[in-house]
Records
---
Amino acid sequence: MYNLNDKIVLVTGGATGIGAIAVKLFLEEGAKHVTITDVDVNAGKQLEKELETKFKGRAKFVKCDVRNDEELFDIYKTIIDDHGFIDVVLNNAGIMNDSPNVYRTALNVNINALITSTLRARDLMRTDRSGRGGIIINISSIAALMQNRYLPVYFAAKSAVLQFSICIGAQENYEKTGVKVITMCYGATDTSLLSKEKMKPFDEEMTDELYDCIKQFPLQSANFAATGLIDACKRGDSGSVWLVNDNKPVEDITPVVKKAYGLLTSLVV
């Protein structure tokens, strides 16, 4: 079990939804300090104010567009300058919008920024380069475990997160660096991500069909999803994949994922 007490944590996309609840849970677990980043300044500042009453001086909001390398790297530099190290990074920022005018932004947030953040965190944490090890948690989705004709860009992005995180989190990489990489897959969760304002199909004519499709999935609470995340963080091995769905206890689905990829690998090896 990984002990979160006294740890230095960074959460991207942490101003609202699952990310905001995860921030609170990290603090309740005893994290020494949590840096929260988001593009939603009002929500971020409000969360910081709320946390200050119970966790005085232990949480800080900083506006950051994770697509902007300079802004993202400045966050990491500030954390290192202030605390000397970083222990846990939760790459939580995400967009579920396949519409023609947004999908490129979504890809940059969901894939490019997540990979960039992972690589930066790993470099700072790795024990073979003066770091003290740590955990990187990348947010994928049940979208990586199935297909859907309405959101092909989003499903492709979350599949990329799954593959990237499993590969970079391989046991050999962990043994060399002391940095765990864990993948978290959420089921449909009651957050604004599923709202009509934020979730868009690639073809506008499919809008009603998309929302009818989403209604078929059991909707879990954001608190339940975040609690599962914390549990996976404490229990997970590097390269492991975790699922929290339908308000059921978080589950290590690594054996199933390995079996699935094993079937695909058998076609070429």
---
Amino acid sequence: MLNRFATASLVRKIVHSTSKDLNLINLSKHISSTTLSNVQNATKPIRKHNWNQAVSEAEKIVGYPTSFLSLRWLLSDEIANVALHLRKLVGSNHPLLKTAKNLIYDGRSNMQAWGLIVLLISKAAGHAPHIPDLEEDKSAGVLHSQRALAEVTEMIRTSTLVHQGMVNLQTLDRSGNELAADSELIFGNKIALLGGDYLLGNACLQLAGLRNQDLIGLISSAVRDLAESNFIGDRDDENIALPSDPALKINLTDSKPLDDFENTRDIDMSLIMGHPEREWDFRHTLSSGKLLGKSCQGTLKLAGQSEALQKHGYTFGKHLALAYQASMDLEPFKLQELPLTTTFSLVSAPVLFHLDYDPSLYEEIKKGKKSVTNIDFRKIHKIVADGPGIDETKELQRKHGQIAMDVLNEFPDCDARTALQNIILAMQCL
């Protein structure tokens, strides 16, 4: 039987090992002079904004490493042997292996800090006077219910990533054929399906245990949004997202950005698909922005804060998630040349922006209608890297990061707020 405490300790050391510091680039390009003044005057600033360092410093403020909130479930007695089963997938190239690596080892390129964000915004806002003292974790300055919500957020996010580790073994025209030759991939799919379901089930159980009907409705709607994000726009036969055909784009008489939305059925998709920033915002607000935004909103609801401050919490979480997604979209394009067999999202911001600049790129993307394996990703990588999409994505990341930074000014000046500011700044160095 796996020793879960020993394993957690070992994983913690790996995840939090210090990576090489990255010097902060010109702050004037990323934050306003007002925000810069706030950061310079904040308590205990981190001078070198490195992602791992910013997260590690922030974790000290809220009590213990929240990166292991969801791993606490993965290392429980019921499924402690999952790690042993995963070893059977070595050499099979199943996507679940990459997912597991990113979740456990690669602290820089995953968003396992979402529970941490929820706890930091909780501590930055404080709680209303009528909340009983027994509800508060004195050592961390947050409520026990807020810590439980942070775990729920972390588990929902992790369950989504694990589910995305499944691979489609048959296209529609091959459905029903014998799959014996793909036994390793079938096994990997079972682990991804059951592991993701286990985390999501525990998240629902813990959410119900908070006995707050408004909060349950709020987080449940975020899970609904996550599901809906998988049914947007064109997809290949293996259900991998493809960008919209630029030829179908309609000219907009109104250039206003997409308003926040709660019911996707009320949205005219022709006003979104094919318009790079709107399409990107819509996809990722559903897939990540709503969950983090509603979790930040929900944690302030638990603290008895005003609706105005709850709204600020939602805005902060949503735009922080979008800023992070833009940073991740840029990752493949930091390489001079894409390694063989490496792929990236064809609905990432650099690709969508480049399609708007040069619609002829869609001819290459159309080759992936049957399967994205038919696409020359190295060719697309070079074309996009030489175009304007990279700079436009950097501006997109800066915009959402700035909105999140501005919203933080509505919260009291404290260590938790400083830690969130440092995380935003470090995000720009990813």
---
Amino acid sequence: MGCGEFLVKYILFFANLFFALAGLALIGLGVAVELQIKEITNAVEASNFHIAPIAAIVVGSVVFLIAFFGCCGAVRENNCMLITYSIFMLILMLLKVTLAVLIFVNLDSYVKEIPRWLNEAFSRDQTAFHQIEKTFKCCGPTGPLSYGNLVLPETCCASTPCTPFNSYTGCATLVEDFFQTFGVAIGALAIAVVAIELVAIVFGLCLANHARNQSRRAHY
């Protein structure tokens, strides 16, 4: 093996090690957000809250599996494994580009709907809304004034007695910031992974070609 092939082989190996870690990061981020928004989905009648974290978990799992396949293909220099890996990486790269574009295009309009959803949840069932307050350390959709009589529940404050003077801020702003940060993080991570995936695809095809040529020479 020449110096060039040696470098391609180990660059591809370490690139896939990065992909495996990025896949685990996506899984961890998705799980963390899913646990965080559990109380919101129980109170708010908007099932699409689950879409982003579940998509992150699924994509992270697929990235991890394909990266593991790529590591094995690079180490063994198996032409079939490397070609299969490159095709899957290309498909995955296109899907992640699509996901990132959809996130950045729709994130603002999605986030703007959160105050309305929270107001509806608050009007429908304040007891269920207390779980959101407990999770995000907030008070009412817009603050303590959301409770017209200003008799605040304990979930609105860090200490008792709970009054407007020691209460948390409104939930709408905190939940909006949470989803805005999560959306940007997912989109940015997807774009970063796509950029390195493009290099990995080229290296994978180069190494596959080298492995195929070696196999041909071995038969002569």
